Here is the input.
Amino acid sequence: RLIGAVTAPIELSALSPAVAGAILPAGGTTGIIDRQGYLVVSFPDGAGTGTRAEGEVAVAISSAASPSIALGPDGVERIYAGVPVKDSGWIAFAGIPTAAAFAGFQRHRDWILAALILALGMAGLLAFVVARRISRPVLTLRRDAEILASGRLSHRSQVATLDEVGQLVVAFNG
Here is the structure.
């Protein structure tokens, strides 16, 4: 039989800046649920205090072993993580919007993608230049061979390289 109840305000923000949401990004939420799954307190706005955590959020918060992604009651997808509060049966939790959590990654991903595209473009340009340096003397030598085949035996190739193609030109010119 219940004889009475005593309530006392607790300034949880004095206990931890994380509970007050001081280190959470916009849209982040923190709170404590009891062993029956009722929300004891939540920050930043106290919404849902006294209600039962339901659905994906309840599962995400109650599995204090590892963070998980769930859709919050306000429709925002968050990464939730919980940790048991010693000797209380309560679980302290925090939820960070996935958009905020992955924003840094996405910003870096864009820079990495731009650098990759630039590197591929430069590699393509380098490949083009090298291919031209290799093919131009060979094409010139082919034209010279066609001229010789047409009967102009006094024709000499003007290809001047120091590589194998140049050695072939020296042998070709006799």
Q: What stands out?
A: The longest helix spans residues 103-149.
